[in-house]
Design brief:
With 450 residues, the chain is α/β, with parallel strands linked by helices. It contains eleven helices and twelve strands. A hairpin with a 5-residue loop joins strand 2 and strand 3.
Length: 450
């Protein structure tokens, strides 16, 4: 670019806190950055219906008296270690078929439940904890600094935000404690607060100041940058336009949500209007914000909580049901509600796919994609929402590129700690540590020898 450095270019964008994707036209000013590896955690509450998620559990039939023979999982895991190609996907995971070659299904991972707290609260709050069970004195929670903050000490020191915490709990009736609704913690008793409102997250990432928080940031940036457009190459102009179109799309989504809130506020619902917003649009919008934050280098570490544990307030799952439903309530009536629960599990997987596809569509300087350069983990702190079991958790690892062997179903030996996965991820992200929580070793089957 003529007489212009990347820093000058960013300064010309009206002072907004808005990073840009790499542009080839600026290559003379500074060399392309090496593709960095990020980490994103996509947490789903209430566990899953096992027979829909886990291979080999689709055909369990249990006699249920007068109800006849009902399909139901026995919740038993294969105790033996095996690594197989990820073949036909189970019904719940089936939405991931287009990107099957970029995921690993990991089964057989367990967590130890420490007596003294609620099952749901501990499964969420301690999901990423670095504490070994029964080691933290003065508290019933095996909870210390979580994986995201430990990793951020290594890969988050040069980004505007060391970590970002996203949550899709729009409820204001917080009848449960903070332990049901957060997976990110600075340490024992020290919560890393999540942002739940898309507009608040947008302002945090992109707004210039509180006084200008309602200004259209995209228009501001484009106005200041228009004079520089003529100096960009064709591919950079395309990338520039695509990037700001994604920001514009997010703004339009938020405008629709604001209008929906205003209309719903006029109706005499017993619960807050936010509880009835369509779930898919809300989750995808927050997912888009997370992807943009990772893409632009605003952060390298994120946590994303789809919903809280044990909240009985209903959600409106668009296209699934004709009225709002409580995910937790349905999970305690699995025999009767199993078909509806399977719909919810698949719905959550579709939202995970949306994030994967958005990441995989973003090409980085070396030709790899944002998904290739992110350890994106889908998981839950319960293996089954009905039985509340802590063994055989539903885990999918997406991304990792050449650093990770993908397209596998890895079944770990019975009793393998979930912390083994966190240890493996920490090492992939550059941490030189011997253990994480109660880990017993890394998952070598994930590691590429290239």
């Amino acid at each position: 670019m003529k007489n212009s450095s990347r820093r000058d270019f960013l300064r010309g964008l009206g002072g907004t806190v808005l990073a840009l994707p790499w542009l080839e036209s600026l290559a003379n000013a500074t060399s392309p950055p090496a593709s960095r590896l990020r980490m994103a955690q996509f947490y789903v509450p209430i566990g899953v219906v096992r027979r829909g998620f886990f291979p080999g559990e689709q055909d369990d039939i249990i006699p249920m008296g007068n109800l006849g023979n009902v399909m139901k999982s026995l919740g038993e895991q294969d105790p033996n270690f095996s690594v197989k190609p990820l073949a036909e996907l189970t019904p719940t995971i089936q939405p991931l078929e287009p990107l099957k070659h970029k995921i690993n299904l990991i089964t057989g991972m367990d967590r130890t439940f420490q007596q003294g707290t609620d099952v749901h609260a501990q499964c969420a709050s301690c999901y990423l904890s670095s504490a070994k069970p029964y080691t933290v004195e003065g508290t019933a929670w095996p909870l210390q600094r979580t994986l995201d903050h430990i990793v951020a000490d290594k890969i988050g020191t040069q980004t505007p935000f060391a970590t970002l915490e996203f949550s899709c709990n729009s409820h204001r009736d917080n009848k449960e404690s903070i332990y049901f609704d957060n997976i990110s913690w600075y340490g024992t008793g020290h919560l890393a607060p999540s942002i739940r409102d898309p507009r608040k997250m947008y302002r945090r990432l992109f707004s210039t100041s509180e006084a200008e928080r309602y200004r259209d940031v995209t228009d501001l940036v484009l106005e200041d940058a228009r004079s520089l457009q003529q100096d960009l190459g064709y591919s950079d102009k395309q990338k520039f336009a695509e990037y700001f179109e994604s920001i514009r799309t997010i703004e339009k989504q938020m405008e629709r949500l604001e209008k929906m809130k205003a209309e719903l506020a006029k109706v005499g619902f017993e619960e807050p209007p936010e509880a009835y917003l369509p779930r898919g649009e809300y989750i995808r919008l927050m997912g888009d914000l997370m992807v943009v934050a990772l893409q632009t280098g605003l952060t390298n570490v994120t946590t994303f909580m789809v919903g809280p544990e044990r909240w009985d307030t209903p959600y409106l799952f668009e296209e699934l049901f004709d009225k709002p439903r409580s995910h937790h309530g349905m999970s305690h009536d699995q025999t009767r509600m199993i078909d509806d629960l399977l719909k919810v599990d698949k719905f959550h997987m579709e939202q995970f796919l949306h994030v994967m596809q958005r990441m995989d569509a973003i090409v980085e300087p070396d030709g790899s994609t944002l998904l290739d350069n992110t350890l994106l983990t889908y998981g839950s702190g319960l293996g089954d929402g009905s039985t509340h079991q802590y063994n055989d958790l539903p885990i999918i690892l997406a991304g990792g590129g050449k650093r990770v062997v993908s397209g596998q179903h890895i079944n770990m030996p019975e009793g393998t700690p979930l912390a083994n996965l966190w240890l493996t991820q920490a090492r992939l992200l550059g941490l030189e540590i011997d253990e994480f929580a109660d880990s017993t070793g890394e998952i070598s089957s994930l590691l590429s020898q290239a």
